[in-house]
Write the structure tokens for this entry.
Amino acid sequence: MRSRHLWILRITTVVAFAAVLFAACGGDDGGGAEGEDEGGSSISLSAVDNSFEPAELEVPSSGQVTVEFTNDGDNPHTFTSDEGGFDSGTVEGGQSKTVTFEAPDKEISFLCTVHGESMSGTIVPEG
Ligand SMILES: [Cu+2]
């Protein structure tokens, strides 16, 4: 009776120890590191007051497109396209934001929702 009790205690200890080890080792895969590493390429886009540079953005014609959008102006700007299905949200002057979307198979337009059609551009798939 007594030895059996000890045996259970020992197994319980080993299992508990293994659980702690497992949690310590496996704890780094819940993070938000996404994009970049599935053949996608990162493209730089800048906003000034009040236009995009460049206003014509060449992107790959397939896969995920990652755009590093930087607001080099003083006004808040966004990088937004209904057709492209993305919206950076408001990016304040001096800030930047990474926007990822599915490569379009035709030219689509984008704009800044703060300044509307007067601040817009075109995304052109290469090839
Ligand atoms: Cu703007």
About this structure: The two ends are 78 Å apart (CA to CA).
